[in-house]
Amino acid sequence: MPPGDLNPRSLLFTLYGDYVLPLDQEEVRVGALVRLAAELGVSSPALRSALSRMGREGWLAARRNDGSPRYRLTARGHSLIEEGTARIYGRHRAGWDGRWVLVSYSLPEQRRGQRDRLREGLSFLGFGSLGNGIFVSPHDLRREVRQLIERHDVEQDVTVHHGTLDWPADPAQVVARAWDLTSLERPYRAFLLRIREELAEAEALDDRQSFRRRFLLTHDFRRFPFSDPDLPDALLPPDWVGTTVRGAFLEYNRKLRRRAERFYLAIARTDTIVDNGDRLMDGNSAAALPRVGTGEAN
Prior knowledge:
- By secondary structure, the protein is of the alpha+beta class.
- The chain folds into three domains: about 5-80 and about 265-290, Arc Repressor Mutant, subunit A (Orthogonal Bundle), CATH 1.10.10.10; about 100-165, Alpha-Beta Plaits, CATH 3.30.70; about 180-265.
- The chain is about 50% helix and about 10% strand.
- The strands form two sheets. Strands 5-6-4-7 form a four-stranded antiparallel β-sheet. It has a three-stranded antiparallel β-sheet with strand order 1-3-2.
- Helix 1 (about 10-20) packs across helix 4, helix 8 packs across helix 10 and helix 9 (about 205-220) packs across helix 10.
- Mean pLDDT is about 85; it is low at about 270-298.
């Protein structure tokens, strides 16, 4: 993905998930966010607009310190980031005891907003749809489902079952109905080809290059965990390419992480990058700023 194709909102979620939270930073200055976004081809106006929108939506909260705005995650934003990080970096759930979690709901058309948010939340957790308001997962996600239905105030409209299925008796039939794994094959293989080529160059990258490369790597990979349900080994096709892709992603991410974090911290901790009353700074003006953390290979 070229840097210019990044969505500012998605950029911020990735930035907070990959850097701000893991590095124990409670809040980040707008000036630092603008500089980091410029490194990735996102303009200052676009980033500021996304910050304002995410604040209104309850994902971020702003605080001014000596006139310089700082943004931190709200409890809601923190929860979303933790869920997303678990999906992207969590361990593959290989085992299965033969039981399923079934979730069914019945919400009328006038409550379509709640229905859509519930459906999106179930898909985010990796559930597949069997149609007619019935979702299924081979993983015991009852706690997560409970949190989801409480969050959207639909406790009286949802039924949850955990156990075996009498029919279809063949689990492969359930998988075929609930998930389209074949649609993932081509993008998975294209991603794997690119990653294998770039892995060979990883050790030669400096801090700035590592930050850009790791950011785009995570941003590009993150679409897979939200379309791949992470099925247990017993339910996967033989030689499932998703397993290989995940291993290559984690290896490449590990090689880049130390240098990428060093570049991020050099900007996030630099007090000289200020906004001067929300002065705009676009991608071109970023080139005039001092280059931070380059020239170190490890």
